[in-house]
Amino acid sequence: MNSDDRLRQAFEDLERRSDAVDPRYSLQRLGGDGRRRNPWMPALAGAAAVLAVIGVVAVSGLLSGPDTDDVVGTTVPDATTLVPDSTTTSVGEPITTTTIPGAGPTDIPTHQVTGVAEDDVLNVRAEPGPGAALIAVLPPDYAGIRALDNIEVVADGGSWRQVELLDPTRVVDGGELDGMRLVGWVNTAFITEYDPTLPEIAPCQHDIGPMPEPTGDAPTTSIRFASSGLEDACARSSPSVRTSTPGTGRSTESPPTSALPASRR
Amino acid sequence: MTIEVGQMTETSFDDFYLREFRPMVALAAAVAGSHLLAEDLAQEAMTRVYRRWDRISRYDKPGAFARRVTINLAASRRKRDEVAERGRTRLGTQHALPPPAEPHDEVWKAVASLPPKQRAAIALHYLEDRPVDEIAEILGCAAATARVHLHRARATLADLLEGHER
After folding, report:
1. Phi/psi class of residue A121: alpha, beta or left (left: φ > 0; alpha: ψ in -120 to 50)?
2. In 3D, which of B160, B68, B72, B128 has the Cα closest to residue A6?
3. Are B35 and B103 in contact (CB under 8 A)?
């Protein structure tokens, strides 16, 4: 009997032994087949109920607390770590909600491969930088990329971002795939924000156009006229709040709080 | 078959589980080298699939994905066991109970001596009669690479098994 026959026999025997396994039993252990059998479920339900009660008490305490009109500002995370278009901040409310790109639902892609030739691939590396170990290779039309956070790391002149590959079945070579989660670093020059409506990703060609006129709400650069006294005259004629930052030499002016609509406080 | 919208995912996962669990057990046994562990490994893989079933069910071949998870888990487990075994050997201690004798022991020892990818390729070939393209898809490599894994595995096994007969 040659090796091929012996292998076939051994694998057939293995298959027969596996056929003896009843998947319905293990499916029930997993909680399927319409019968949830998680022994921790009652305890978890109890804990959830307690947390819900605490939440209701906390919210009612907030609502009966100080007048919300007194809340002038809320804490906004460091602007350098946020992408402004995706940041939603409700000012003037006791609760601030901030959506950070890459920190949303874990199964929605945020980016896709761009700028890679049809016969080329995009490397995914273990660390930021072109010299780091290669852990996977993506096809040029791969669209299942989720940025894990919004911090870009500059390494060896390139900008790198940590991503998770949501569709590992389309990864050309995922030798280091650990279980279901494939995480690595890609050069940001070759990824763009995910847009399922775009059949083909063309290079960005924005027509910027003329600069918009600054509005009264936007911070403007203060121009000081040498010994003209105009600035002081303006300041006297329109009462405002002056905020200066020590050490930076910068100062900003804004209308008094009462002049702002309630929603902007 | 009528499926209510709210139960579509769950019913589909149950069908998927009942269809794929046994082949995954066999695959885990071949890659991990232990039938005792195989069921737990397949169950762990299914648990991971279940956690993200909403997304995985939209894949073209969720079964291929589940197999890849099984192979990775089995290979990791085997690696851990080998490290533990080396530690026991260094300390001069043995298992409290020797592993039970398996039929085709010599064949499984030869399969166990293969690298993980070759082991998985040979298991997918003999267990499920999968073509090279599908083996490549499950292993996450190019078809040519899968062909090389398969070729080298068969050559090594032929050398080990037929060499023993001579």
Report:
1. beta
2. B160
3. no
What is the DSSP-derived secondary structure letter of residue A161?
E
Q: Which helix (H) or strand (E) holds A136?
A: strand A134-138
Residue of A nearest to B65 (CA): A169
Q: Which of A11, A28, A166, A182 to mutate to test the interface with B (most CBs of B within 10 A)?
A: A11
A108 touches chain B (CB under 8 A): no
Q: Do A26 and B46 touch (CB under 8 A)?
A: yes
Rounded CA separation A33/A25 (Å): 10
Asked whether the beta carbons of A187 and A120 are under 8 A apart, the reply is no
Question: B33's torsion region: left (phi>0), alpha (psi -120 to 50) or beta?
Answer: left
**Cβ-based neighbours of A123, under 8 Å, separated by 6 or more:** A134, A136, A137, A138, A186, A187
Query: What is the rounded CA–CA span in Å between residue A27 and residue B118?
Result: 30
Higher pLDDT, B22 or B105: B22
- Best mutation target among A13, A15, A108, A171 (most B Cβ atoms within 10 Å) is A15
Residue position matching structure tokens 């761009």: A114
Each residue's pLDDT tens digit, B62-88: 899 999 999 999 888 888 877 877 777
Q: Specify the residue for token string 């870009």.
A: A152
Apex B161 CA angle, B156 and B162, nearest 5: 100
CA A7, CA A219: separation in Å to the nearest integer? 76
pLDDT, tens digit, for every residue of A244-260?
Answer: 444 444 444 444 443 33
